[in-house]
Amino acid sequence: MVFSEASWLGQGTFGAVYRVQDTMTKEVFALKLSEEKAIGDLKYEHSVLRRCSHANILPCYGLSEVDDKGRLGMVMPL
Question: The whole model's pTM is what?
């Protein structure tokens, strides 16, 4: 996925959360962007969320490398 038009929504435990738009499909998502020191924590959170299925827990669509620094973003519905 390639995102454009990022706007800040808030601050999560492991990093900032942005509203982003997929450049191909024009779909809008929330992207939790990891801080460099929290990449392992974000990967763990992703592995837990993949196994969860509950109305009060947001699904996670996947992890995406967001820049050349190796930072990860977790893609979720908005």
Answer: 0.80
The set of residues, in sequence order, having a beta carbon less than 8 Å from that of 78 and lying 6+ positions away, is: 19, 28, 29, 30
What is the Cα–Cα distance from 33 to 53, expressed in whole angstroms?
Answer: 23
CA dist., res. 50 & res. 74, Å (int): 11
Burial class (CB in 10 A: 0-12, 13-18, 19+), 73: buried
pLDDT tens by residue, 15-61: 889 999 988 999 999 998 887 778 888 889 889 988 898 989 888 99
